[in-house]
Amino acid sequence: MQPEIEILPLNTCPHLAPILAHWSHTEWYLNRDISFDMNLKSYRARAMSRVIPLSFAALHRGIPAGMISLKTNDLWSRKDLNPWLASLYVHPKFRRMGIGTRLVKTAELYAGESGHTRIFLFVSGPDSAMLSSFYSSLGWSTLEKCLDNDGNDALIFQKDISGIKA
Question: Would you call 50 exposed, middle or buried from its count of C-beta atoms within 10 A (0-12, 13-18, 19+)?
Answer without folding.
Answer: exposed
